[in-house]
Write a structure and sequence with these properties.
Elements (H helix, E strand, L loop, with lengths): L11 H18 L4 H15 L3 H26 L2 H22 L3 H10 L4 H30 L9 H29 L19 H22 L1
Helix pairs in contact: 1-4, 1-8, 2-4, 2-8, 3-4, 5-6, 6-7
């Protein structure tokens, strides 16, 4: 996921709101040719603001999925337009999620802390995001331990998954959660105190405002074309 992040991301809340707006508006256009005008406009905006690399990384995967699901819709409905519309919705999901995928998670957490969101939300989000790579690494280590002991891992072997993989994985999660709780308490984190500081302030810039204006203008333009 870090490889998909951009060097100069947009303001976190703008990225979050823009992603939701693009998805909602796109769903409204999904039954019309206007959705492809929307995708074209989004491509130009993303290219202008440096989101070409993450979009180019995730778009081929979504295009492949859209072709498979769209073909299935065409087979079941016997309507080519239905297949195209289904494919368009899948591709729209890639366009609506690229802003959040390319956003460093710590920026969103800092932004929520600055806006005095509840610590239960910000601390839980930070812990979840930070421990995803740790859990992936634990999965790899358990598989390597199984291989060194001559146990062949297979997702189709329920007994192997339960005894050789799932049990040690759950034990590792429990141990890490205890260590994390103790670590948080020793560093003075409390949910009762609302006062907290942010090491690096996340501020809205002229670039973020310009992006918002361009996005809103594009959505309005596509809406006008759709109505006419």
């Amino acid at each position: 996921m870090e490889k998909l992040q951009v060097r100069n991301p947009l303001y976190p809340l703008i990225s979050l709101i823009a992603s939701m707006i693009v998805f909602v508006i796109g769903i409204l256009f999904s039954q019309d040719i206007a959705i492809f005008y929307l995708l074209l406009a989004l491509t130009l905006i993303y290219a202008l603001f440096g989101y070409v690399r993450p979009l180019s990384k995730i778009l081929p995967v979504f295009i492949l999925i859209s072709i498979i699901i769209g073909f299935g819709s065409f087979i079941t409905s016997r309507d080519f337009l239905v297949g195209v519309q289904t494919s368009g919705r899948i591709i729209l999901l890639a366009y609506s999620s690229v802003l959040m995928i390319a956003l460093p998670p710590i920026n969103l957490t800092r932004n929520l802390v600055q806006l005095n969101f509840p610590k239960v939300l910000t601390l839980g989000m930070l812990a979840t995001i930070r421990f995803v790579p740790v859990l992936i690494n634990e999965t790899i280590q358990i598989k390597e331990a199984m291989s060194s002991r001559g146990v062949k891992f297979s997702w189709f072997n329920i007994k192997c998954i339960y005894r050789a993989f799932l049990v040690p994985f759950l034990m590792r999660i429990i141990n890490m959660s205890d260590i994390l709780a103790i670590s948080i308490e020793t560093r003075g984190f409390t949910l009762s105190s609302n006062q907290s500081s942010v090491y690096k302030q996340v501020k809205i810039t002229k670039r973020d405002i310009f992006f918002s204006i361009m996005l809103i203008s594009s959505l309005l333009g596509v809406t006008i074309l759709w109505i006419n």
